[in-house]
Batch of 3 targets.
Target 1
Amino acid sequence: MPTILITGEPYSNAAPNGGPGSTGTKGAPGSPGQSGYNSSNCTYYCLVAPTNGSQGGQGTTGITGSQGAKGRPAPPTTLNLGEVTGAIIIRVGGGRGQDAGKGGNGGTGGPGGDPGTIDPQRKCNSAGTGPQGRGGTAGNGGKGGDGGDGTTVIANYTKLSSGGSINSDIFLADPGTPGGFGTPGSGNPNGSTGTNGTAGAKGSTSQVYVRQVP
């Protein structure tokens, strides 16, 4: 049972993925320490302790993946079948939508700020570097491309012999696969997850007209 397929050319690649987020900014430095002098016993002491550096900034959110393109349409077609001696199926519909791009990775949390400098006489305890910033949120996945449009097919034949038939099999083109979200950025804590892309729509229908010609 021969089948004639009329559809749009499929895509060979998915839509581009989203780019990564940027690294967060470095945290502010801590305040410097200060020494004091005790004149009664001629000694220095810690007057103001240096403070730790501030937490780094959060990484930025990953870029959303690109939306898939609409499927390629099925081409308008005229078939000249002549005398039909067996069963023929004409399968027709648009091309599948393009798969969407994946979301980009979240940016890395920024480095913590430098510790405040020790007091000149080094009587205070040293301060620490600030903690790393929170990781950026993962980029969302792109929307899957809509299915391609159908078309009109005209099937001409001159004669249907015994056992000959012409039947149509019309389908609505599937949308492309939605893109997944990216990887959350590393940090303190790590970034949040994104969301997967949404599904596209099915393609439009087709028509097949079968007619006898001289």
Target 2
Amino acid sequence: MALHDLIDEIRNYQQGAEDQKKKEKEALRVLMERIRYGESTGDVVRDFTIIYHGTLSEEATQPYRALQAQLSGKHLVLVVNEEEKIRGCPGIVAPDYIDPMFIGIERILRMGESRGITFNVTNGHIIIQTPYHLQRGYLGDWQKVDGPITLYSFELLGLGKTVDRRDTPMCNDLTEHFGSGLRVYTENIEEHIRQFCTKASYEKALTLLRRT
């Protein structure tokens, strides 16, 4: 076979692969649209990952299946949200690098009695069913909030992740992003929560939740 014939053969293979990719993409678009308008695969976790991750990969469902199993039944649940924030003024003129001393970690704690979990395929949220829950922000006190704990779609990007304090400057040209983390605990709650608040604060939360 002449080289130009081999080149033509390769191009035909490439074109065929591109055509198949286009067909796959269109089929996935139709699948997502039909699920979004109410149809289901019969597996709500798969529906959720198809819509919000655009994939049929079983691997993508694993964090959500683990969360679903973790929150089955009745549990005391602690949700820890972490997000990097700029604190103070790193410079009158935006610097090329942000010194880590100006980057803090803001934490929000939410705690309540879980009675199950719901995947909202319509808006991409996960709902931890609680009649009410407590919320505590940075240096704040516990506040009672009626209704469930909602894990919003943008929070779920950090599911299972921990945000550690930076020890090197952060590039300020949008090539780096502020870190975010979301962790859900149903076991050893006191051990985990004591990383973020005093024993007295934890005991107050239990009193507010009527678990003492």
Target 3
Amino acid sequence: MRYIVSILLLFSANTIFAQRMVGGVLDTKLVPSQTGNSGKYLTTDGTVTSWGSVSAPTLDMVISPDMDNSVRWVTATIGSGATVAFGTTGLEILTSATAGGNGRASYQATASYNYIPSTSNVEFGAIAAVELEGTNYQYFFGIGRPTTAATGLTMTDKNIGFEFQRSGGTTTLYASCGDATTQTQVSISGFSSGSDQIYQFIKYATDSVRFYLDGTYKTTIITNIPTGSTVCLFGMCASNRNTPSQTILDVSSMTFKRKFTP
């Protein structure tokens, strides 16, 4: 015996009633009300139908500059004897054997831009090698670029990144956040002289910044996290703190990623 299947749609008070005749038996299915559900789609869990909302996609803005090309980079040396150079191994800053010989580099936009908004997650990664040479220096690389002077770096300037301090032959690596007024600085372990290492951090809106070294979680900073516009995205700077101390900061790559919903 063959059955005839027929479907009848009845529209009433913004509700659709689907009537299906199968083998002479009336099967009525209720589709949810359309009221207040404009732009949504109909879905089911296999038993109950319902309206689902269409979510806007999350997009990634990724910036990864050439480290062997001076385009978009602004560089300067302070004092005498320091150098800032682009080469096959990346961007290198060499402090001077003369007191006060320092260098800096910043990757800059043509106008101020809100790279570190309070509503978005931001990710940063770098591959860098730092030499344990000399007796006294201060380094930084990350987002932002602290003011560089013969006596050292102004770490209260807007920054999120990694700071190195060497004094009396001892080097300490710090996770750093500066909000243009105050710096939060936390020492982290795992630094290896002269070796390429992977430095990463993730900023979660305004709540926290988590720091990683070679893929291992190190610390979280929750205070003095900068937000707002800046011309400088990537920054590198080195100071020998007004002592005749020569050493090398070499960064072969830096990457910035910001997630946002259009």
